[in-house]
Structure formats: structure tokens, C-alpha cells
Amino acid sequence: MGLQVLALACLVGAIILGFVRKMNVGIVCFGLALILGTIGGMASGKIYGGFPYKLFSTLLGTMLFFSLLQQNGTLEKVSKKLISFCGNNTFLVPVIIYLVSFILSAAGPGAISVQSVTVMFAVSLAVQMDASPVLMGAMAILGAVGGTASPIALTGIIVNDLLAQMNMEGVGMNMFIGVSIANFACAVVTYIVLGGYKLRRSAGEAAAVKEHFTKEQTISLVALLIMVVMVVGFSYDVGLICFTLSLVLILLRTADEKKAIKMIPWNVLILIAGVSVLMNITQTMGGIELLSDILASFMNSTTAAPLMGFTGGLMSWFSSANGVVFPTLIPTVPDISAQVGGASVMQMIVAIVCSATVAGISPLSTGGSLIMASYTQESGCDEKEQQKLFGQLFMLSAGMVALVFVLTLAGLLKFLG
Questions:
Q1: Which ranges of 107-132 does DSSP label H, i.e. alpha helix?
Q2: Cα 315 vs. chain centroid, distance in angstroms?
Q3: Would you say 312 and 325 are in contact if contact means Cβ atoms under 8 Å apart?
């Protein structure tokens, strides 16, 4: 029991220390791994046993590929082209932003890469249209985090890897469908509450795009299409395909390799690797089993999924969903399901993923901070307006987490079994 408590305390302590000191939680986890492993009598080889080699290379490959597409302007131009289809129907602009973000994210890059393009463009459009930056930015974020649950996108890859470790293979598409439905419900509520349907000002000139794709961007689009076909149609490993296509793009000089490598979010990779190593030690020493027992004591078959989702959203305000929330909570689901008779494993997992991702609207997260940075740069607003925007984003994030809780409690995800 003592080792269980110590292991769980180290995991929780790493998350808290990373948040309080504004440090990368992965680095904290790597630092604690040796201490905890030594106390638990584990050799260094066993401590490293939790390093996610396949996941790390998969994420690195996809991030490199989409960094190349981002660096040469392909992703940005695709976004502008699609949004320009709205013409003068400006009430459709937030809808198109959501759909573009969702589709691009689901195709492979995930929320991080897509948000860096669509959020900035959406906020720029909001300033030009005199529309709400919260509305436009939030629709871009919701689309991106909804699409990232795709089996070939960042979150989908991470969650499916965790599910495979739990001997739950082949359920990735069901998870994606469930997250997409809940995420779409959040987008509809955001659109209505923030008045997206009221947008009437002509934005044809602001949204119109006359530029054509360059030769380099056309080649990049072909590479993107090949990647989707090979992964979705022929089940090739997404990481290896992305590395191969990245090599082709670099050899054809379609993008600047050095700039693209610098654009890779290395902090995310370090975070995921570090948490995985410490999680493996914690699990080996019984810490995850203890966490499962604690969570299960508050739940019954009806409240299990909503409460797990709320916990995921709450944790996501202070830590990374992909690097911390999912590796921490998802492994506890089977034990909780066993202790809480009738609780659905899939409903709990979908609730966790959806709540943790929609919480990304928070200004403490990457998406919300992008909205604030973009709006401040575009509008030159003062500190008072920045504080107001901070509050609006946090309240919207909390509202989305609460909405997922209510929808899950109402049985929206019951079709998942």
C-alpha cells in the first residue's frame, strides 16, 4: 500500500509541480522516474520500458509532415480557399471555420498544427468583420479538437495506443464518432449562444482568395492525399508513411526542412514521453489501481462516464490533454468499469477525450492563448480588454466541459454501448 500511495503521489506531484512552476511535465516525470524506480527496486532498463517508442516515432513523423505543409503555406491556403466559398453569407463563416478545422485536423495533423493556422486566420477574420473573436476562435478550436480524435490524427493515435495496451483494439472509429457527435453539439451551442447566426455584414472582400496554389503547394496537396489513401484505405503505418512523404517533399524542395523541424512542438513530444515513462512505473507499483479505487468510490453506473469526463476537463485546464490527462485517466477505466457494475468503458473514454479537448478553449491552454495572442496583435487592444477576453474564454471553456457532462448524463453516448 505504501508504494501505491508513493507512486500515485509522484504522478500527481509531477502534474502539480509542472503547473505551478510552468515547467514541462515530461521533464518533471523523467526526473522523478529514477527516484521512484529506484525506491521500487526497478533496474534502469525496466524504468525505460515505459518509453513509447512507436508512439513517439508516429507522432514525430506526422508532426514533421504537417510542419512541412504548414511551413510552405499549404494548410493556410487550403483554409482560406474553403472559407472564401461563403461569399457574402457571413453567418456561414463560423460554420465553415469549424468544418475546415475539423477536416484538416482529422486528416492527420491534429489540433496543435491546425489551430496554429485556423485560429489566427479566424481571429483575423473576426477583426475584419467586426465579429466576436471568441466565437470565431472557439469554432476553429472546437473543429480542430473534434477532428484530432480521428484514428490517423494526434489524439486518435495516442488514445488508440492506450486502448491497444488495454487489449481494446479496433474501437478507434467508434471513439472518433462518439467524440465527433459530442463535439458537434458543443459547436452548435457555441454558435447559437455567441450569436453566429446574427452575422450579416458583407465579408466577401475580406474572405475572398484570388491566389492559386504554387507548384510546391500542389505537390504537398498530392502528398496529403496519398497519405490519407495509404493510411485509411490500405492501413499503412501513419508514422512511416509521413516520414517517407516528408523525405519526398524535402528532396523536391517544396518546403524549408530546417524551418519545418523548428516548428515541430518538441515540448509535446517530451511531455508525452516523460509522462509515459512515469505512468508505466506508477502502474507497475499499483498507483493506477489505487487511483481507480478512489474514483470508483464516487460513482455508479449512471454517473461514471459524466464524472470521468468532468475530471478530464478539469485536469485539462492545468495540464496537457494528450500528454497528461489521457495517459493518466484512460488506463483507470477498465478497473472503474469492473468496480461500478454496468458502467460503459467506451462512454467513459469518449467523455474523457471530449471534455479534455473542448477544455482547450481556456486561455490557459494552447488554443485559448492563441486566440488572445492573435486578437491582441490584430486589434491592439489594451490590458483591460485582454482581461475581459481572458474571462470570456475561461467561462466558455467551463461551459463546454459542463455541457459534455450534461450530454453524457442525459445518455447522448449510450449508442456506444
A1: 110-129
A2: 14
A3: yes
